[in-house]
Amino acid sequence: AAPLPEEDCMKLNPSFVGIALSSLLAIDLWASKRLGVCAGEGSAWGSARPLMKVIEVSGHGIPWLLGTFYGLCQSDSSAAREVLLNLLFALLLDLVMVTVVKGLVKRPRPTHNKMDMFVTISVDKYSFPSGHATRAALVCRFVLRHLVLAVPLRILVVLWALIVSISRVMLGRHNMTDVLFGLVLGYALYSVVEHCWLSPLNAPALFALW
C-alpha cells in the first residue's frame, strides 16, 4: 500500500500535547455546564438568577467607567485625581485588551448561555476571556494598593472579585477557563498600569484638563 501523506499521519497519530489539550477542553466544557446552575429560570438554582445578574452588573465596565469619570470630574484633591485618572486608564486598557483577545480567539459562549446580558457589543458574542473576571481582578488589586481600607473592607473587596468571577460560570456566560484566564490577565494588567503610572510629571497635559 502507498504510504499515507504526512498530514494524515499526524491526524492518525495525535501528539500527547494534543490529546491533553483536547481532554482538558472536554473537562472544561463538562464542568462549566454542570456549574451553570443559574443559566436559566428552570436551572437548579434558577431562583437565584436575578441576584446573579445584579452581581453581573456590579462587574460591568460601563458602571465602572461612568463612576470613575464622574468621581474624576467632582474631585477637588490632586492626589485623588491622580488615583482616579489611573483607574480610568486601567479600565480602558482592560476594555481594549479583552476586546482584542476575544476578537483573536473567537471562542463561542457556552451553549446553555442566554444572551440577555447587560449592554453588549458585537465582540461580546465571544467567550474567551471573561471581561468581568479581568476587571474584577484588576480593580481588586488596584483598590487594595491605592485605597486605605480597614481589614473587613479589604476582605469584602476580594470576596466581591471572587463572587463576580464565579457568577460568570453560574450564569452560563463563560467556561471555567475563560474566567481563570481572565483573572490572570486582570492581575497582570495591573502591573502594566503600575509601570505606566500617570502623574503630573510624566503626563502634565492630562492633569491640566482637570
In words, what does this structure look like?
With 210 residues, this protein is mainly α. The chain has one domain (49-209). Helix content is 67%, strand content 0%. The protein has nine helices and no strands. Helix 3 (49-58) crosses helix 7, helix 4 packs antiparallel against helix 5 (78-105) and helix 6 runs antiparallel to helix 7 (151-170). The longest helix is centred in the middle third of the chain and has 28 residues, at 78-105. The relative contact order is 0.15. The model has no long low-confidence stretch (mean pLDDT 89).
Q: How do you describe this structure in short?
A:
The chain has 210 residues and is mostly helical. The protein has helices at residues 6-12, 16-35, 49-58, 61-74, 78-105, 131-146, 151-170, 176-195, 204-208. Helix 3 packs across helix 7 (151-170), helix 4 (61-74) runs antiparallel to helix 5 (78-105) and helix 6 packs parallel to helix 8.
What ranges have pLDDT less than 50 throughout 5 or more consecutive residues? none
Which range best describes the helical content: under 10%, 10-25%, 25-40%, 40-55%, 55-70% or over 70%? 55-70%
Count of the separate structural domains: 1
- Tally of individual helices: 9
Structural class: mainly alpha
The proportion of strand residues reads: under 5%
Let me know the number of strands. 0
Mean pLDDT: 89
N-to-C SSE string, H for helix and E for strand: HHHHHHHHH
The major pleated sheet works out as:
none
Q: What global shape is seen?
A: globular
Please tell me how large the radius of gyration is: 21 Å
Distance N terminus to C terminus? 78 Å
Protein name: Polyisoprenoid diphosphate/phosphate phosphohydrolase PLPP6
Enzyme class: hydrolase
Keywords: Endoplasmic reticulum, Hydrolase, Lipid metabolism, Membrane, Nucleus, Transmembrane, Transmembrane helix
GO biological process, one term: lipid metabolic process
